[in-house]
Design goal:
By secondary structure, the protein is an alpha/beta fold. Helices cover 42% and strands 14% of the residues. The active site is at 149 (proton acceptor), 159 (proton acceptor).
């Protein structure tokens, strides 16, 4: 018997087998949770359908553009029907910034790019949590889990616009946690270290970033999607029942460091 037997979850953000959302989905499934998935655009449909079916061929897979309120409403309507009117866990692993925003200076960010990044990366959590709340309340409460990165707290060169979007996301976590707490809905962010996803590796200098963290983190290692899945399962389960509004660092302890290599 898994610790999440009888529970249901909705996962946003699976793009391929290296996705953080996929690592979380695998862990939740292994713990006994029944899942539904969404995909962004027809290009990703086949991949997400195949991955979901590899866990359970009956899992629901739905299209969703998180900038569309109509799409979000349609997803939650279908999920509510499939899950008997309730939902226990929402996984939000959605972020976007134009590729060119990682290459230049943050101060040169275009207004339209800023608006798109904040809408998709941060406001989407607001919209998805709001829509999930009635279904979670029907189950007596629930857990909302999103993904962030240290670049939302400190300057990480080349992270640029995405860092500002993550800062907005982390602030949104605290306000949503306050709003939904009386309904027994917990809202938390996992701040993982550099992970070898396709999106992560598109950031200029990612291999150096990954090596620097591995070399200087107290535990002297990086994290992977399996590690993130274990933490998400904890947050979705009874161990996380009194944790809300937190940004939990999962980076081998790197976030505590003020300097890297010790000064001789």
């Amino acid at each position: 018997m898994g610790q999440l037997d009888g529970q249901t979850g909705l996962v946003f953000g699976v793009a391929n087998k290296r996705s953080i959302a996929w690592g979380i989905a695998q862990a939740l499934h292994d713990a006994g949770m029944r899942l539904a998935f969404t995909y962004q655009g027809e290009r990703l449909k086949e991949t997400v359908v195949e991955l979901a079916a590899s866990l359970d061929p009956t899992y629901l897979v739905l299209p969703c553009d998180v900038t569309s309120d109509d799409d979000i409403a349609a997803v939650y309507s279908a999920v509510g029907e499939a899950f008997g009117g309730g939902l226990n866990t929402l996984v939000h692993s959605v972020a976007f910034a134009p590729k060119e925003s990682f290459a230049g200076l943050f101060v040169d960010t275009a207004r339209a790019d800023f608006a798109a990044a904040l809408d998709i990366s941060a406001y989407s959590l607001v919209a998805l949590a709001r829509a999930a709340a009635p279904l979670m309340e029907a189950r007596g409460g629930g857990s909302v889990i999103t993904m962030t990165y240290l670049g939302g707290e400190r300057v990480v060169p080349k992270y640029n616009l995405m860092g500002v979007a993550k800062a907005a996301l982390e602030s949104a976590v605290t306000y949503i946690a306050f709003d939904l707490g009386p309904r027994n809905i917990r809202v938390n962010a996992i701040s993982a270290g550099p992970v070898r996803t396709l999106a992560g590796r598109s950031i200029p200098g990612f291999p150096k970033m990954e090596e620097y963290v591995r070399t200087n983190a107290p535990l002297r290692r990086n994290v992977d999607i399996e590690d993130i899945g274990h933490l998400a399962t904890f947050l979705a389960g009874p161990g996380g029942r009194n944790i809300s509004g937190e940004t939990i660092h999962l980076d081998g302890g790197y976030h505590v460091m003020g300097m890297g290599v010790p000064v001789e």
